[in-house]
Amino acid sequence: MIPxxxxxxxxxxxxxxxxxxxxxxxxxxxxxxxxxxxxxRPAAREAAIAEGFExxxxxxxxxxxxxALLLSPGVxxxxxxxxxxxxxxxxxxxxxxxxxxxxxxxxxxxxxxxRPKVVAITGTxxxxxxxxxIAHICASAGRDTRIGxxxxxxxxxxxDMHGGAVYVLELSSYQLDLTSSxxxxxxxxxxxxxxxxxxxxxxxxYVAAKRRVLLNQGKGDTAVIGxxxxxxxxxxTEVVAANRxxxxxxxxxxxxxxxxxxxxxxxxxxxxxxxxxxxxxxxxRSLPGRHNWQNAAAAYSAARGLGLTPEEAAEGLMTFPGxxxxxxxxxxxxxxxxxNDSKATNADAARQAxxxxxxxxxxxxxxxxEGGIESLSDLFPRIEKAYLIGEAAPxxxxxxxxxxxxxxxxxxxxxxxxxxxxxxxxxxxxVVLLSPACASFDQFTDFEAxxxxxxxxxxxxxxxxxxxxxx
Length: 471
Prior knowledge:
alpha/beta, 21% strand
C-alpha cells in the first residue's frame, strides 16, 4: 500500500467502505492516523469488522474531533444535494477529500528520486480501455506499471511508489470532484458527452469536473485532449492558449495539423515536422472501431509523453489483449457470436458497439440514463431485433415502436435465450450484442456482474459453446 502521511496523531472520518474506502483507511493507518469508519450498508460494515476495523457511527460522532472526511466517490458531494456527512463536515470546518487527493499529496511530498510518473485518464467513454491499454504498453516496454483508481484497485492499495514506477489511473468525474492537488505527468481527456448530470448540477458542472484532470499541469507535462467533440475542441483551444505544457490533440476521424490521429484505421503521429504512419489498427484485433482508434491515439500519445519510443508504443497497441465487458466475444454457437459490451452504461457508449456491426440482435435495458436511447435512432435500422430488460424495457419498447422489432424479456437470461433462437434461425452469420445503454443497478450490483451474468447465460444455452477471444 501507499502510506498516507500528514495526519499523524489525528483522526480522519471515512465514509463509504467499498474498495476505495477500505484501501484509504489502511493507508491512513499506515501513515499514523486514526480512522473513524462508517457505511450505511450493513454488509459493508460487516466486511470492515471482519478485516479488524472498529466502526464509528458518524451520525452521532463529534465532528469537531476530525481533521478530514475521506468520502467515497459514489456519495453526493454537491448534487442533487450534499450528503449529510458533507454537511456535518462543512459545519465543523472539516476538509472533504477523496482517495485520489490523498495519493496526489503523497506523490507531491515524495523526494524527487522517489516520485513516480502518473498518467491520469478521464472522459465520458473509453476510460477503462485506454487505461488498460497504456498500462499494457508500459509494462510491455519493461516499465514497473501499476493500474488503479476507478479501474481495478483503489489507488492507495497499490504497491508503494518509487522513482521508476508508472501509475496509470482511470478517474471518474466523481473522483475528480474530490481532487485538487493531482499533477499528472500525462493527463488524458478523451471525450465529453452528457452523463451524470444529476451529480454535477448540469453539463457545466460535469465539464468542470472533467477539466480538473488538467488543473495543475505545467512545463514538462503532457496533456492529451480528444478534439472530436465540441467540448474537447474548446478545452483544447483554451489549454493551448495557456501555453504551459505539451499539448497533443487527438482525433479518430480527421487529420489534424499537429497531434495524433487515425484515418481509415491508420495511426499517424503529426507531432513533429511531418505526419508519420505508426500502426495499422485494422490489424489490432482488440481495438476494433473508431472509438477504439481514439483510445489507441490517446494511449500512443501517453506512451510518447512518458518517453517510450514510437516502436515500443506501436508494439503495445498490436499486442493488447482487450478487456472484459468491452466488446468482448464471450462465445460462439455455430454461426452466432455473442458479444459482451456490458460497460456501455449510456447511449453514447452503446453507439460505439452498435456502429461496429452492420446487423445485430440487441440486448438492451436496465436503469435508464437521461436522454434514453433516442440519440441512437440512426442506428435502429441495423437492429435485427431488440430484447429489452430491466426498468427501461417499456420505455425503450415505445421508442423502438415502428422503427425496430422489439420484445420485452424482463431478465437477461431470458433475453439471451430468445436472441439466440432468433439469430440461429436465420442460418447466417449473426451477432447477439449485449450493449445495454443503461446502468445496471436495477438488477445487478455493477456492469461487471451484468457482463458475467451474460457470459453465464450464453454458456447455459442448450448447445455447445465455442468460447471466444476478446474482440
